[in-house]
Structure formats: C-alpha cells, structure tokens
Automatic annotation (TrEMBL):
The lineage of its organism: Bacteria, Pseudomonadati, Pseudomonadota, Alphaproteobacteria, Rhodobacterales. It catalyses: a lipid X + a UDP-2-N,3-O-bis[(3R)-3-hydroxyacyl]-alpha-D-glucosamine = a lipid A disaccharide + UDP + H(+). Its EC number is 2.4.1.182. Condensation of UDP-2,3-diacylglucosamine and 2,3-diacylglucosamine-1-phosphate to form lipid A disaccharide, a precursor of lipid A, a phosphorylated glycolipid that anchors the lipopolysaccharide to the outer membrane of the cell. Belongs to the LpxB family. NCBIfam families: lpxB (TIGR00215). This is Lipid-A-disaccharide synthase. It comes from the Bacteria.
C-alpha cells in the first residue's frame, strides 16, 4: 500500500505521525511519500521539502510568500499524480492541502482523505461544500463534526484526538524536572507558550512578557518555563531575554522526537498554570490537567476579516468541546498585557472550574478508548 501524506505545521505533523504509526500496525508493508515534520519523519517519511515553508497563518502573512506557495502546491500535486498512490491524505493546513487536492482531482481518480474537519461550526460554513468538491473522506477530531461533513456529501469518521492517548509523566518525572531546572518542589510554575509560528512569536511574546510583571509582583516565588517549538526556538530565546524574569527555555533542537515530546509533556505536567497562544496546545494542557489563559492576535487586516466571519464566541478548544466558557481568552483587540495579567491572577486564585471542563473534554475526545491514530488508520482503510 502506498500513501502520499501532507502536513504543514507541528500540530498536523503530530496527527500524521500517529496516523502513520496506526497504518504501519495494520498494513506492515505500507510506504509513505509526501511532506511532513519530525513526527512523520520518525515514522519513515522522507519529506519532499521542509514543512516549515507551509507554517504561515494570516492573510497579510501569506501574501509575501504567495508565489512560492503556489509553486509548492503545483509541485506537490504533480508528485501525487506521478506516483499514483492508493490514497492521498492531507492534514489540516487547508489553504495548501485543498489546493493540492483540487489539482490532483482534476487529473486523476486518486482517493483523497483530509484529516481535521474544517471548523464550519465556528466560521465560514460554506467551506464544507467547497471541500466536498475535492475530498472524499474526512477524519474528524471532535464528535460533533461528522454531521456537518456528511451534509456536504463527504464520508466522515470521528477518530478522536491523539492527545488523549499520550502517556502522562509520573510524579517522579515531575520531581526530576524541578531538580533539573533548580526549582524547589513547592515553587509555583507557570508555562508560557508564545506559539509555533514566527508571526505568532513576534506578535505575542512582547505582550506575554509585559503581562508577567504584575503576576510576578503578586507571586514573587513564581518560576517561568517556556517550551519552544523547534522552528522558532532561536526566535523565542531572543524574545524572552528582556522579560521581567528571564525564563527557562526548553529548546528541542538537537533532541530526537520522542525525547523532545517527553520533555514537553513533563513540563506541562509540572506546571500549575499556563499562558498559551490559542490552538491545539489547549488540548495538551488539558491532558496534563494544567489550567490556562488563552491569547491570540494576528495582523490587523486579518483580524478584522476573521472577526466578521466568526460564528461562535470562543476559540479555545476546551470551551468548545466542553460547552463551557471556563478558559479566559484575550483575542484580537483584547489581547493586551494588562488584561492578560488580570486573567492569570484570577486563574491562579481559582483554577478548579477549568479543571472540571478539561476532564470533560478529554472524556469526550476518547480518553481510555482505542488509540486515535489507530482509529484513524482503520477509518482510512475501511473506506478504500
């Protein structure tokens, strides 16, 4: 069996790695081609180009890279057509993935699967109809998504999210982490996560640093750790150098995939709270039972356009899946250091309602069930 698989950012790479592992379990002679990051490469993918070329978000951010991305779209689609795999699987990154799928469908009958349903329940509901023109089958992360995809004419299976099956660190792991970074066991620990894209780090890191000052004043014993994504690690190290308290930066460069992932999970489990850029990291924090304040902002024009399209009042996945509003969010014009600081101070005072919502979220996403990567692989094979 030959699979062409494409991911464009770290969260998609994680999904792709889990799916590939599932396919290898069910079809030992499976082979892979495509584009992906370290998680997918660890499963045997030789990426055709660096996945970071596709990790761009926001209308104004994409424009300078448009010609290059257009060439990559054409090159990737042609590679799929030339190699004629049994299935092409695209993972998230719809602006790239669905353009590739359109070119592939125009010239072939190759079956197309898209992993991660578009958030039509949040904004731009017509996306499902457009997607159905080029995608045969959708793998959904959330249990409420299949009806939206099926209504547009696509097969769709809820497969859960790989975060629910990731091993959680032991108390001994957490204790060793604190010793390694010179922390007393009783020191409160705050994680700060400024994002995995360059635009996110440049936009959010200064606001996060400014927000720390009043939080540190109220909690003078607070320790700060910043787990950096490999593509932006150098940028993160430079950005935090002038924060009120220079944090410990967890730099995954030079580590193998599993070691880096384990170190990140231990940091998440050791933390008392987190300040995090909005995204799938919310689920990783929920799996670690670490409450959070969620922030995000983008280019002014991108922000205005997205705001007009939004159909829900929250972007945080814990709030959405649990149907609660326990995670405080500071998005767009509200993404200000003074508001972020007050949100964190309030959270540190009473984190328990959010922890209840996080546990509900993990249960709804399939905790204690079959590994979602294996479920996704079964779903792909069942419909070929």
């Amino acid at each position: 069996m030959r699979v062409f698989i494409i991911a464009g950012e770290p969260s998609g790479d994680k999904l792709g790695g889990a799916l590939m592992a599932g396919l290898k379990t069910l079809v030992p002679d499976v082979s892979f081609d495509g584009v992906g990051g370290p998680e997918m490469q660890a499963q045997g993918l030789a990426s055709r180009f660096d996945m970071s070329e596709l990790s761009i978000m926001g209308i104004m951010e994409v424009l300078p890279k448009y010609r290059h991305l257009k060439r990559r779209i054409a090159q990737t689609a042609q590679a799929v057509i030339d190699t004629a795999p049994d299935v092409m699987i695209t993972i998230d990154s719809p602006d790239f993935s669905l353009r590739v799928a359109r070119l592939v469908k125009a010239s072939s009958t190759i079956r197309t699967v898209h992993y991660v349903a578009p958030t039509v329940w949040a904004w731009r509901p017509k996306r499902a109809d457009h997607m159905a023109e080029v995608i045969d089958h959708v793998l959904a992360l959330f249990p409420f998504e299949p009806p939206y995809m099926q209504a547009a004419g696509m097969d769709c299976d809820f497969v859960g999210h790989p975060v629910v099956s990731e091993p959680q660190p032991s108390l001994q792991d957490v204790a060793q982490f604190r010793v390694q970074y010179g922390m007393e066991q009783a020191d409160p620990l705050l994680l700060v996560l400024p994002g995995s894209r360059k635009g996110e780090v440049s936009r959010l890191a200064p606001r996060l640093g400014a927000a720390l000052a009043p939080v540190l004043a109220a909690h003078p014993g607070l320790r700060v750790v910043v787990p950096a994504a490999a593509p932006v690690a150098e940028m993160v190290i430079a950005a935090v150098a002038d924060w009120p308290l220079v944090p410990k930066v967890l730099d995954p460069r030079g580590l193998d995939v599993e070691t880096a992932a384990r170190a990140k999970r231990v940091a998440f489990a050791a933390a008392d709270a987190a300040l995090a850029a909005s995204g799938t990291v919310a689920l990783e924090l929920a799996a670690a039972d670490t409450p959070m304040v969620s922030i995000y902002d983008m280019n002014w024009l991108s922000r205005r356009i997205v705001q007009r399209m939004m159909q829900i009042d929250t972007t945080n996945l814990i709030n959405i899946v649990s149907d609660s509003r326990t995670v405080p969010e500071f998005i767009g014009a509200q993404c200000r250091s003074d508001l972020i600081a007050q949100g964190m101070l309030d959270l540190l005072q009473d984190p328990e309602p959010q922890r209840d919502a996080m546990r509900t979220t993990m249960d709804l996403l399939g905790r204690n069930g079959e590994n979602p990567g294996l479920r996704a692989a079964r779903a792909v094979l069942a419909r070929l």
